[in-house]
Amino acid sequence: MATTQVNEVSIGYDDSGNGETLILVHGHPFNRSMWRPQVDFAVAAGWRVVAADLRGYGESTVVPGRTTLDTFARDVAGLADRLGVRRFALGGLSMGGQIVMECLRQFPERISGVLLADTSAPAETDLGRKLRNELADRLLREGMAGYAEEVLPKMLAPRNISALPEIARQVSIMMHTTSPVGAAAALRGRAERPDYVETLRRVEVPTLVVVGSDDEFTPIGDAELITGSVPGATLVVIDGAGHMPNLEREAVFNTALGGLLQQVTTVEGQR
């Protein structure tokens, strides 16, 4: 584990392997450890992989108030700058996918390939804004425990909680140990998220869209909208997985990721 200063906060990150760079952005309310199977896979495939804790999460600085997606995106760019990485493939799950889309809006010229997993592109609805702000209030009032227990059967397909007890334990620990202050700030920021569909229509690099067949938070229709918006995007629906197919069906997810990385290598070699 390493830390560095980015945009006046301390960011905890792992920087593994050598080669072309892949940056992975975790979802809410998790941390960079959710990407361990993909880090190991991509490093073995000859890539340099950077996985960082977002501000407010894991070992990064907790910032109260409201953290918008554009702030998270600037942190991604700032970390890449700190590590001397100009161009990189970029992947994210759920909130992490929305941060990836914001990165595509801010600095598409730096991105060589895109992974969007279990995420949604349209702007937040009025009801969504209300619910996210109410949840932020609740987390600040009660902490993470009750919320974590409630959403575990939605983060993972319910049958996987008993079928994959170690994965369920890992996901539960990540949620329980997340700072409620950091999580609340991110929820308030996501309540203001813009529409990314037009941004996606301008993407010109290899793009993989992944979704669990049983995802209740961002169902298959959300993934189909993204796939239909990005020219040439590939959609992979992972059977038997919920909102975290990278952990629930690691081998299938990694096979799809490997296809994307090969495509990026080929396209970048032609530039």
UniProtKB/TrEMBL annotation:
Task: Please name the SUPFAM superfamilies in this protein's record.
Answer: alpha/beta-Hydrolases
Q: Which residues form the AB hydrolase-1 domain?
A: 21-249
* The keyword Hydrolase belongs to this UniProt entry's keyword annotation: yes
Give a yes or no for keyword Nucleotidyltransferase in this entry. no
Q: Which GO terms describe its molecular function?
A: hydrolase activity
InterPro entries named in the record: AB_hydrolase_1 (IPR000073), AB_hydrolase_fold (IPR029058), AB_hydrolase_sf (IPR050266), Epox_hydrolase-like (IPR000639)
Q: Superkingdom of the source?
A: Bacteria
Keyword tags: Hydrolase
Gene3D superfamilies cross-referenced by the UniProt entry? alpha/beta hydrolase
This protein's name? Alpha/beta hydrolase
Q: Species lineage, top-down?
A: Bacteria, Bacillati, Actinomycetota, Actinomycetes, Micromonosporales
